[in-house]
Amino acid sequence: MAVKILLASSNPGKLAEFQALASGSSILIELGLMPNFESIPIFDESAPTFAENSLGKAFYYSQHTQELMLADDSGLVVPSLGGRPGVHSARYAGENATSAKRVEKLLEEMRGKSWDEREAHFVCALSLVKNNKALCVISARTDGQILESQRGAGGFGYDPIFFFLPLNKSFAELSPEEKNLHSHRGRAFRRLLGVLPGML
C-alpha cells in the first residue's frame, strides 16, 4: 500500500522534484500538493531557523488534513555576509522580487570578496507532521561557493551563482539527476526516506 504524503505547497515544480526523489525509494510513496493550499491564509515564516519555519509550516497546514504533511524550508547561507540571505532567501530583495533581482543583490553584496569569503551552503529542513504530532525534523546542507557571475540555464533561484566544486559546475549546470543526488533537498529527503519506515 502506498504511503500518502501531502506537500505544504502549491508549487508543481517543487512537487516534481520530490516525486523524482521518491521514485527511487523502496517504499511506495504517493506525493501530492496540499488541496486548496492557496485558499488558506499563508503561514508566516518568521522564525530564525530553517527547522523552526519548516516545523511550524507543517503543523499549520496539517490542521487541514488527516494525511501526513511534509513541509520544507530551504535557503542559501553565506557566512561572510553574517549568514544572509539565510531564512530570508526567498524575500532577500523584497517580498515580490524576482529570482533575478535576488541574484543581482547577492552578487552586488559579494563584489570584491576573495574566493575564501565566497564560501556558502544551501540548507534544507524537512518536517513531517500527522494529527498535530511531529514525526521528524531532518536537515541537510550542500557546500559550495558564490560565483562572480551566473553560469548555466537550468535550476532556479540562486542556482546559477552557486558553484559545486566536486563537479566543477554551478547548480544551474547540473542535470536533474546530478542535482537530485547532490542537492540539500535531495540529501534531506533521502534521510527522511531512511527513517520513514520506523514511523509508519
Q: How would you describe this protein?
A:
This protein has 200 residues and is of the alpha/beta class. It has one domain: Maf protein. Helices cover 28% and strands 26% of the residues. It has helices at residues 12-22, 50-62, 99-110, 176-182, 184-195, and strands at 3-7, 29-33, 68-77, 119-130, 133-146, 162-164, 169-170. Strands 2-1-3-4-5-6-7 form a seven-stranded mixed beta sheet. Helix 4 (176-182) packs across helix 5. The chain is globular. 35% of the residues are buried. The mean pLDDT is 94.
| CATH architectural category | Alpha-Beta Complex
Assign the structural class, choosing from mainly alpha, mainly beta, alpha/beta, alpha+beta, or little secondary structure.
alpha/beta
Summed over residues and divided by their number, the pLDDT gives a mean of 94
Spatial ordering of strands, largest sheet: 2-1-3-4-5-6-7
Compute the number of helices.
Answer: 5
Distance between the termini: 12 Å
Helical content band: 25-40%
